[in-house]
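== Fold encoding ==
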Amino acid sequence: MQGPSDSSYAYKWEKVGFRAAWVSITQIPLIFMLSTKFNLFSLLTGISYERLNWIHRWTARTVLLTVIVHWSFFFQEWVLADFVQLQLKMMPMVKYGFGAFAILGWNVVSGFGYFRAKAYELFVIQHICAAAVLLWLLYIHVPAYAQSYVYLSIAFVALDWGVRIAWSLIRNLHLLASSKSRVLGYQALLKPLAGDVVRLTIKNVDFTWKPGQHVYLSIPRLRPFEIHPFTIASISEQRRDAVSSTLTLIIKAHKGFSRSLHKAAIGRVTREGTYRAFLNGPWGTPPDLSHYETVVLLATSSGASFTVPLLESMIQEPGCVRRITFHWIIRSESHLSWFGDKLNTLVEKAQSNRVNVYVVVHVTRDDQQRPLQQGGDTVEKKQEQREPIVSVISRPDVSPKEANVSASGADRSALLAVEHDHAPGHQSSMNVVYDKRPDVASLIRGPVEDALGETAVVVCGGPTLTAQSRTFVASLSDERAVHKGTGAQGIYLFTETYGW
C-alpha cells in the first residue's frame, strides 16, 4: 500500500479526480435533456416533462457532488506536489473549471423550492442564462475529445426549442385546422369570479386535448414575452362532425401574469373584453381512469380545474367505472361560482348513465355561516336559510333525506350518507358541507373499502394535500394487504400539485 512518501502517491489522487471528471461531464447532457419539454425520455416512456423535473434537479445535485470530488482530488494532488500557484498560472482551463463549478452550485441552490416559489419568473430567467454560461465554461474547460458532450447538450435544447416553436406556429397560424382561419392566435374572453379568480374562455379552438392536460398561454398585450402553463378546465369536443371546441381556463390570481389577467378582467380595457391570445400545447399525460371500478377525485381550490374535466369525461364515457366520488374543498361559498353550475349539470347527466356520481363540496370558511352544531343539522336545513346555489339531485326512488350529507362535524360519519347509500338503481347527488377542512383519510377510506374492483385516487392540490394523500394511500394499501391473498383490490394513486 502506497503512502505519502511514495513518489507516485500524488498521482493516485489525480486518477480519482480524472474519473470523477468523466462521470460529471457525461451526465451534463442528461441534465439538459430532462430540462426540456420535448425530450427523448418522454417519447420513450410516455411520462410528461413536468414529472421528470425532480429527476432533473437531483441529477444536477448528484453531478455537483462528483464535480466536488473532481476538483478536490486534483487540488489535493497539487498541494502534495506543491505547485498550486504554478498550476493556476500555467493552465487557464482550471479557472474556467472553478467558474463552471460555481455556476452549477448556484443553479442547484437557487433551484430549491423555497427560492423558486419566491420569484419564479426571475428564477427561470436567471436559470436559463446561468445554464448558457455553464455550457460555455465547460466548452473551454474540458479537452477537445470531451466537448462532444457539450454539443449533445446544446442539441437537446435546440431540438426542444425548435419543436416548440414549430408547434406554436402550427397552432396559432391554424395550419392543421379543417377550416382555415385568417386570425392570428385566438380570441380570449376574460371574466372575473369570486376569490381573485379569472375565467378565460377561448371559443373555436381547432385542436383537441385530453382531460387534465395543460396549455401554455401568452397574451402579449398584457405581459409581453411571457408564457405560462394553465390546466384546461374543460373537455374537448368529441363529436366527429365537430370542427372546434371551447377551451376554458380557471386562473387564480397571485402575482405577475395571473394578477395582470385579473386586473384586465375587472377593468375591461377593450370594448369587447377580449384579448388576442397565443397557445402552445396541449402538454401532459393525465391518467386513463376508464378501467377502474371506483374513482375518487379530490381537489382543493382551483385544483378542480384538473379533476372536473376528468369527472366530465368519465360521465360521458364511463368505461369500467361504476362509481365516482368527487370532493372539492374550498374556503368560501362564493367559490362555488367557479364550477358549481358545471357540477350540477354533470350530476344531472349522470342520472341517465350507469355510473353513480357523488359530489361533495366542503366549504371550510365562510363569514356568513355560524359555527356548525354537533347535533346533526343537515345541509338541507342550511340551504333553506338562503337562496340555494347547489341542490341535492337524486333519482325519484331515493328520498332527499337519504341523499343528504350530515354536517355533524365528524368527517367520516358526515360522508356516510352520501358515499355509502346502497339503494337499488343508479343514483347521483351533489351536496355542500359547511365544516372544518376534512381529513384526507375520511375522504378516501370509505370508497376504497366499498369498491368491488380496483380503485383510482386522483388528487390535485398543494404539497401538503398530496403528501397526506400519498402517505394515507400507502398505509391503507399495507393495512388491507392489497394483492396479498386477502382479496383486497389494488389502489392507484395519481397526484397533481399546483406549484413548482
Observations:
- The CA atoms of residues 17 and 259 lie 50 Å apart.
